[in-house]
Design a protein that fits this description.
56% of the residues lie in helices and 0% in strands. It has a domain of 31 residues. With 85 residues, the protein is mainly α.
């Protein structure tokens, strides 16, 4: 993919120097440097851990969830039927 960016002169001079020393194109050097920078781990960030909290026991018996769903659906169907009368 092509894009246009504006870089400070000192950075461009460094990229040209590296390209000249390593006998590579500026494009190759820039791609390598950008790849290294993007995959480098930042030691200042460290890892982030999400805190976990005990929310207590469940207030609902999930073993009877399907029965509750069936009852709610039955009630909804009966309510719709009654509204049509």
């Amino acid at each position: 993919m092509r894009t246009t960016i504006t870089l400070p002169d000192d950075i461009m001079h460094s990229i040209y120097s590296i390209a000249d020393e390593e006998k590579k194109s500026v494009k190759e050097v820039f791609t390598e440097l950008l790849t290294i920078a993007l995959h480098k781990k930042n030691p200042e960030r460290g890892t982030w851990n999400c805190p976990a909290y005990d929310m207590g026991g469940a207030a609902f018996d999930y073993t009877k969830a399907w029965q509750l769903i069936d009852n709610l659906e039955s009630d909804a169907v009966a309510e719709k039927r009654d509204m049509r009368k």
